[in-house]
Amino acid sequence: MKREDLQNKGFATKAIHGGNKTDPTTGALATPIYQTSTFVFDSAEQGGNRFALEEEGFIYTRLGNPTNMQLEEKIAILEDGEAAMSTSSGIGAITSALWTALKAGDHVISADAIYGCTHAYLSHGITRYGVEVTFVDASNPENIKNAMKENTKVIYLETPANPTLKITDIAAISKIAHEKGDCMVIVDNTFATPYIQRPLEMGADVVVHSATKYLNGHGDVIAGLVVGSKKFIDEVRLFGVKDMTGASLGPFDAYLILRGMKTLDIRMEKHCKNAMAVAEFLEKHPAIDKVYYPGLKSFKQYELAREQMSLPGAIIAFELKGGIEEGKKLMNSLKMCKLAVSLGDAETLIQHPASMTHSPYEREERLKAGITDGLVRLSVGLESPEDIIEDLKEALDKLI
């Protein structure tokens, strides 16, 4: 269906029909996988025109592919963006967007609690090329305002944050950025997905995703997406990906994400319902010191989460009274929940951020961001909630 025909349709309808184009040769309902590296031109003139951007059409899969294009149109519709670019990983999406937005001499303000590899790129990667980076607690917009400089060009946010679940006021921070005039806000929306939160509608300029997670939902793809204005996405495609990262997505992976996105709303409802039940159980267990989950009334930013998100998500962080040693015992005692990094899969996954996903942080920076040695991250899956709770209870009871 065309985008204009979907304007007043529900999320599920957009997720199923958005971007879809019936194969003109066969009439196939499912999106064909155009497993090709290059595309044949009708003439030398046509090839030249496409390279000169004077004629639309495909050239080379690193620049675009019909399967990928349907995925890009679908996520752009769901995030209410003008256009999107697919990449070969979430970090590929993030770095492609930032390479496009920044140059030597520019300044970035980033939330301090973010994915470990993103933090490594900002603190040890892009700084090698003359970009200045300041990390702040972005849960307080005043910290962003106080960190602004004349050369600040990007404010980078994750909300909810990985792994602390801190919530950032997207509208307030976007207002601060845009009052400056030449500063864009980039939001990693992986934890929430467009089903729960749409940052562009709140004033953000660009959204990035690790499509590996909830968008695909089945743990069998590594992919990323960048969503924003057509002008910015054209620059990401022709500079950020083509010239800088080369992080192009293969068409088979694009197909798998397209298939997964058709059930995004159903899966997110179940993920969040399960997570709420698990969070309430954890909060009452005597071995647990603190639970961080936006759906709990005890969560510090509960009201902001309710304003900004339609559901509280399915990631829980918690601290054990016995610290990391007890955390190791817990993780090693689980039977059904899997000890693995990543998130958003059908399976419930548990991991230790300080030694795993957030190990790239310097310890002092990590602790300042609220990522303590004893913090455990739980990605609640789609199993029967009573079975998730039973597995956790058996392991937690051994710690009492």
UniProtKB/TrEMBL annotation:
<comment type="similarity">
    <text>Belongs to the trans-sulfuration enzymes family. L-methionine gamma-lyase subfamily.</text>
</comment>
<dbReference type="GO" id="GO:0018826">
    <property type="term" value="F:methionine gamma-lyase activity"/>
</dbReference>
<dbReference type="GO" id="GO:0005737">
    <property type="term" value="C:cytoplasm"/>
</dbReference>
<feature type="region of interest" description="Disordered">
    <location>
        <begin position="1"/>
        <end position="24"/>
    </location>
</feature>
<keyword id="KW-0456">Lyase</keyword>
<dbReference type="Pfam" id="PF01053">
    <property type="entry name" value="Cys_Met_Meta_PP"/>
</dbReference>
<dbReference type="InterPro" id="IPR015421">
    <property type="entry name" value="PyrdxlP-dep_Trfase_major"/>
</dbReference>
<dbReference type="InterPro" id="IPR015422">
    <property type="entry name" value="PyrdxlP-dep_Trfase_small"/>
</dbReference>
<feature type="modified residue" description="N6-(pyridoxal phosphate)lysine">
    <location>
        <position position="213"/>
    </location>
</feature>
<dbReference type="InterPro" id="IPR006237">
    <property type="entry name" value="L-Met_gamma_lys"/>
</dbReference>
<keyword id="KW-0663">Pyridoxal phosphate</keyword>
<dbReference type="GO" id="GO:0019346">
    <property type="term" value="P:transsulfuration"/>
</dbReference>
<protein>
    <recommendedName>
        <fullName>L-methionine gamma-lyase</fullName>
        <ecNumber>4.4.1.11</ecNumber>
        <ecNumber>4.4.1.2</ecNumber>
    </recommendedName>
</protein>
<dbReference type="InterPro" id="IPR054542">
    <property type="entry name" value="Cys_met_metab_PP"/>
</dbReference>
<dbReference type="GO" id="GO:0030170">
    <property type="term" value="F:pyridoxal phosphate binding"/>
</dbReference>
<dbReference type="InterPro" id="IPR000277">
    <property type="entry name" value="Cys/Met-Metab_PyrdxlP-dep_enz"/>
</dbReference>
<dbReference type="GO" id="GO:0047982">
    <property type="term" value="F:homocysteine desulfhydrase activity"/>
</dbReference>
<dbReference type="InterPro" id="IPR015424">
    <property type="entry name" value="PyrdxlP-dep_Trfase"/>
</dbReference>
